[in-house]
């Protein structure tokens, strides 16, 4: 026998022996304590967050890799090869990526052939418009906690080689570098065909932990928290932290909840919204420009945005200082405007109202409030040349048989739990930075109810960093000022407004300089694309905006940053046929105040709904 074969056989025997010694299969144990899945506290991830992230030990010897909790049916690990190819476009800095190790090598013959990432899992691939390749593999997962270790063997997962997230304009994309930790429990295992034609059946993640006796039920309790401001993530399998559940839970018998209204509100103080002196704005749940009674949506931690009807996003945005960017299919904050600072620093919120329990004839309503402080997210490289603040409502047109999604942006303020054994899903209000003390509860296999925190605080009692605004008597346009006693109350522009204007000018100069440097570095291999894009920008039509009195005037096209220097491809009008991957077909309505945007490559619409780049 060749020496290489002997060495391989010896290695296999050693690995099998190690795996056998490490694995302790105790069987189902309904008296187990909930398992605390670790959230990383030293780094955040995402070119569109930042986001908190869970960390999981995979392979043997185990490797610590980041994953988003997900309702995908399979756990997804990102191969290190995904970011090593010359065509890769991974966000930086790179997190730890999976290197094929001993446990996977042992069972590599069971791997599937690569297949298209667009078919991997509809709860992720469809909202993210995924392309690239993925394949199914067998691997080990090691559960770590202060009380010990748990080992999930005979465990199936998928490995991404180059799965890519795409935006409406194909020039904008990035290579996935964070995996998906499956919390699906609708079935205990799944099958695929290996490269040699064998039929392979291995276990799913959450049911595997239950049948191994590590958790008391096929359930989880999740609050992803937020990176800015800092609210640590909380994930328990087989239980939940009741301090993250402030309200009576909304109950569903499947993975969907019924959304019946979207509104804007202010918990205390004056309104920061120029169009609403009271700060209370209702009836924003719309489709095709008309208010509707309800839509179904999936709370989905595996995707980043609030994927809602285009008319709903437009209706919300009409009351905010934001500008729609058709390249990204998202709205960007006009950070130089005073109302932007007041909205994200005051106790103002976006309110989502749901049917509390669709099986209850009384059809009580329950609301979850998302402070605008959590909806001030940051887009970074490789999607944009320099950091830009954006509002994460994404106009979305679900495929037939699919649904809308309330992703991580929404779930920063919401608690999500599920017991797969009783087919119950719970959704409730989660706290802010002033989080109550941890209080972990077990979810039994037969539980069809979930108890919120006892004597829970009001939401904004956990958001003491947000300060109510008071009306400025000297300003007839309903401008507001902080209650900070050091704030200026003089007539005309306040010191803060002047400083904000100066900062806006400086930020604009710095942003333009950053864009110029970004374009210069890419010019050698993108010269033809740059020429086409420059020709488009030189010939574009001026944008139109409205001043405070409602008069229409021509906007300064130079006030906004142009999109990054990439290959030019003509865009279709939003009202007509959209390019492949476009998320919403209906036309955008004029939104917010467009002047003074600090965004990049932004676009507005004139009174007839025609888009113009600013």
TrEMBL record:
**Residue spans crossing the bilayer:** 499-520
- The name this protein carries in UniProt is Peptidase A1 domain-containing protein
Signal peptide residues on this chain, from the entry's feature table: 1-26
- Region named Disordered: 471-494, 571-614
Question: Which keywords appear in this protein's UniProt record, sorted alphabetically?
Answer: Membrane, Signal, Transmembrane, Transmembrane helix
Query: PANTHER family given for it?
Result: GLYCOPROTEIN 38, SH3 DOMAIN PROTEIN (AFU_ORTHOLOGUE AFUA_1G13610)
Q: Where is the composition biased (Low complexity)?
A: 573-590
The record's annotation in InterPro entries points to: Peptidase_aspartic_dom_sf (IPR021109)
The organism named in the record is Cryomyces minteri
Report biased composition (Basic and acidic residues) as residue ranges: 605-614
Top-level taxon: Eukaryota
């Amino acid at each position: 026998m060749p020496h290489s074969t002997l060495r391989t056989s010896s290695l296999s025997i050693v690995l099998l022996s190690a795996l056998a010694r490490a694995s302790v299969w105790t069987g189902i144990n309904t008296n187990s304590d909930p398992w605390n899945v670790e959230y990383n506290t030293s780094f955040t991830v995402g070119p569109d967050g930042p986001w908190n992230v869970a960390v999981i030990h995979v392979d043997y010897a185990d490797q610590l890799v980041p994953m988003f909790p997900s309702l995908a049916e399979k756990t997804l690990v990102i191969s290190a090869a995904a970011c090593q190819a010359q065509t890769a476009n991974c966000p930086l800095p790179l997190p730890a990526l999976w290197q094929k190790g001993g446990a996977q090598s042992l069972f590599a013959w069971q791997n599937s052939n690569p297949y298209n990432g667009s078919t991997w899992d509809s709860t992720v691939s469809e909202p993210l418009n995924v392309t690239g390749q993925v394949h199914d593999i067998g691997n080990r997962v090691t559960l770590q906690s202060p009380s010990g270790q748990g080992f999930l063997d005979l465990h199936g997962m998928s490995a991404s080689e180059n799965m890519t997230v795409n935006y409406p304009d194909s020039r904008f994309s990035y290579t996935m570098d964070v995996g998906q930790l499956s919390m699906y429990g609708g079935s205990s295992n799944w099958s695929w065909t290996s490269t040699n034609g064998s039929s392979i059946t291995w276990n799913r993640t959450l049911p595997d932990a239950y049948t191994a006796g590590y958790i008391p039920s096929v359930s989880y309790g999740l609050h992803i928290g937020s990176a800015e401001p800092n609210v640590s993530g909380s994930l328990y399998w087989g239980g939940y932290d009741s301090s993250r559940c402030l309200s009576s839970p909304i109950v569903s018998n499947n993975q969907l909840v019924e959304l019946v209204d979207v509104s804007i509100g202010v918990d205390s103080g004056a309104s920061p919204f120029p169009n609403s002196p009271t700060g209370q704005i209702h009836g924003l749940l719309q489709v095709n420009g008309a208010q509707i009674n309800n839509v179904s949506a999936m709370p989905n931690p595996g995707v980043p945005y609030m994927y809602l009807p285009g008319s709903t996003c437009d209706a919300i945005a009409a009351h905010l200082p934001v500008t729609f960017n058709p390249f990204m299919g998202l709205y960007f904050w006009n950070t130089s405007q005073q109302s932007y600072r007041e909205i994200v620093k005051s106790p103002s919120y976006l309110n989502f109202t749901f049917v509390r329990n669709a099986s209850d004839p009384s059809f009580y309503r329950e609301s979850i409030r998302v402070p605008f402080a959590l909806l001030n997210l940051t887009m970074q490289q490789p999607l944009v040349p320099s950091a830009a603040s954006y509002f994460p409502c994404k106009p979305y047109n679900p495929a037939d048989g699919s649904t809308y999604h309330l992703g991580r942006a929404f779930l920063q303020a919401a608690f999500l739990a599920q017991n797969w054994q009783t087919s119950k899903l719970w959704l409730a209000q989660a706290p802010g930075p002033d989080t109550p003390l941890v209080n972990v509860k077990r979810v039994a296999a037969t539980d069809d109810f979930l108890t919120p925190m006892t004597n829970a605080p009001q939401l904004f009692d956990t958001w003491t960093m947000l300060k109510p605004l008071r009306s400025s008597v000297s300003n007839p346009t309903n401008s507001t000022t902080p209650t900070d006693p050091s704030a200026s109350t003089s007539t005309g522009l306040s010191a803060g407004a002047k400083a904000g204007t100066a900062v806006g000018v400086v930020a604009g100069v710095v942003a333009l300089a950053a864009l110029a440097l970004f374009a210069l570095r890419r010019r050698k291999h993108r010269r033809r694309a740059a020429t086409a894009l420059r020709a488009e920008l030189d010939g574009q039509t001026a944008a139109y905006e409205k001043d405070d009195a409602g008069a229409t005037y021509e906007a300064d096209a130079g006030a906004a940053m142009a999109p990054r220097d990439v290959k030019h491809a003509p865009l279709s009008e939003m009202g007509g046929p959209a390019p492949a991957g476009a998320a919403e077909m209906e036309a955008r309505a004029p939104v917010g105040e467009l002047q003074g945007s600090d965004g990049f490559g932004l676009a507005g619409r004139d009174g007839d709904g025609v888009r113009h780049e600013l």
